[in-house]
Amino acid sequence: xxxxxxxxxxxxxxxxxxxxxxxxxxxxxxxxxxxxxxxxxxxxxxxxxxxxxxxxxxxxxxxxxxxxxxxxxxxxxxxxxxxxxxxxxxxxxxxxxxxxxxxxxxxxxxxxxxxxxxxxxxxxxxxxxxxxxxxxxxxxxxxxxxxxxxxxxxxxxxxxxxxxxxxxxxxxxxxxxxxxxxxxxxxxxxxxxxxxxxxxxxxxxxxxxxxxxxxxxxxxxxxxxxxxxxxxxxxxxxxxxxxxxxxx
Length: 248
Known about the structure:
Shape: globular
Number of strands: 0
Radius of gyration: 17 Å
Largest sheet: none
Strand content: under 5%
Oligomer: single chain
Distance between the termini: 13 Å
Number of helices: 8
């Protein structure tokens, strides 16, 4: 389970290194990854997480809303200059913009790691699906933050360090989820709360961070990837069911 979090963290670092391997990274390629991630995150939240937590805890909607508000607060107040998926080559305009971007990304990646571990605690099928969804936007995340930092500092080392920091916070998030769901509070209620918060975060990230990028691009191919990712969700669930890998 924690090895999956390590894999997601490495994707952040890989994204941070990519911009120095290739001068012009295709916006369409990054957009396609975001479109697939958005479709999977929405499908997981609406079809898996929300139905599951609604059955196990009557106040789950409150924690779903809390999860949504956490990210909203961070992006509006703690990191007002950060917008996920913005033009990664437009450059940061000030030091505060870079700081805000890094803070926003760090918090975002913390909850990525948290969500992976919490999902595996429920069902291995759900965990695999969440891992895939998060992994797909980890590389664009790494490209985005390293590009913003590099555009301001012109320092490759600092840009890579920013991507590494995101990887580290992904690991920290996974470790915290392991503590909460499996050590300090090893009960169904704690897990339900964690998954409810995760559902809210997934809804917010998909609807306000990823989908606007797809809509703004006005690229029908990217839109097609979004719809195909939802279909892929059902295919993935069916395939995992056939392999009999689902267990708590």
